[in-house]
Specification:
alpha+beta
């Protein structure tokens, strides 16, 4: 129930994204890490086989993967996309970043 878990988590986060300074992106794609069976011999974009959230914290722009199905709530995006999952390029709910404002990025 990755779709249900990611949908419920996004439902709770979306009303507070501006106050918390979080960009929430609903992602779909393919997973190849532990906990997924049967493993397939190749990565596919369609149909997507898994859904999760990407959370980007402002102003640092630090991004993590939140996947309640795999019990990964704060996984660094580089580790998740290297070792466990592949996001497809489709634009799903909130997959685009929010417009940049002058307080979003800390250049110091």
């Amino acid at each position: 129930q990755c779709h249900g878990g990611s949908s419920v988590l996004s439902f709770f986060l979306l009303p507070f994204t501006r106050a918390l300074g979080i960009d929430v992106k609903y992602r779909g794609g393919y997973t190849f890490g532990p906990g997924h069976s049967p493993p397939t011999p190749h990565v596919t974009n369609s149909p997507e086989t898994h859904q999760w959230l990407e959370l980007t914290f402002l102003p640092s722009c630090h991004t993590v993967v939140a996947d309640v199905f795999l019990n990964m709530i704060n996984a660094p995006i580089s580790a998740a996309y290297t070792d466990m999952m592949y996001p497809n390029g489709n634009l799903i709910i909130k997959t685009t970043s929010a417009p940049l404002t002058s307080t979003d990025v800390d250049y110091n």
